[in-house]
Amino acid sequence: MTYRPTAEQLEAALSFHGHICPGFAYGVQAALLCINRFGRHHDAELVSLVETDSCGVDAIQFFTGCTLGKGNLILKDWGKAAYTFWRRSDGQGFRALQQRLEAPELTQQIDRLKQESPSPEREAQLKKAKTELAHAILAAEPESLFTIQPPQREIPRPERILTSLTCQACGEPTMESRVRLFDGHPYCIPCFSGVDQKS
User: Fold this and answer.
1) Residue 198 pLDDT > 50, yes or no?
2) Which of 50, 73, 88, 182 is the most buried (most CB within 10 A)?
3) How many whole angstroms separate alpha carbon 178 and alpha carbon 191?
4) Is 84 helix (H, G, I), strand (E, B) or coil?
């Protein structure tokens, strides 16, 4: 059975994100691709690698349960509207590369409004056009909005709790996988940058 969010779930997701916009709508649809292939889970069974820090990532967090805190949401801000999902139990995965919805009137209107000088009237028109485009994206079939590809990398290893080392400069405990060694001593990344510049 194909999963589609209820009006209440969408409203809750919008409340989490803060506003409706095309980016959020694409994120909802990417999340639906994941859920409809791999099912819904409440633990870290699903893993997502997102290649942008756009609004859509909030929708992916909300609907898939992949979060930074659980370590099953990996952010690589490469400026690409692409989302990779895996299911840990069998290693299956796919990459969804976003395609622009065919809505020329709305997209042309948005592009034109973005070029105009800022004004309250222009901002209201732009918000209205973006909302209409977001609803059009949400009404589309998820498969029509993305090119589906195999994952471009291996599934990330599960998160582990690691030992903390004390930074030689600031004295703060830092996860051992994030320290940098300088002259045999551990430094956190901010302090290492300073040490590196002085050397």
Assistant:
1) no
2) 50
3) 12
4) strand
Close Cβ partners of 20 (under 8 Å, ≥ 6 residues apart): 14, 130, 131, 134, 135
Q: What is the pLDDT of residues 31-47, one digit of tens each?
A: 999 999 999 887 889 99
Q: Where do the structural domains in the chain lie, given as residue ranges?
A: 7-149, 164-198
How far apart are alpha carbons 167 and 152 in whole angstroms?
35
pLDDT in tens, 175-189: 998 999 999 999 999
- DSSP 3-state of 129: helix
Q: Which tokens in the block code for residue 3?
A: 């999963």
What is the pLDDT, as a whole number, of residue 195? 61
What 3-state class would DSSP assign to 56? Answer: helix
Rounded CA-CA distance 27/59 in Å is 5
Considering the four listed CATH numbers 3.30.1330.130, 3.30.70.920, 3.40.1380.10, 3.20.20.220, the one that applies to the domain covering 7-149 is 3.30.1330.130
Q: Say which CATH class 164-198 falls into.
A: alpha beta
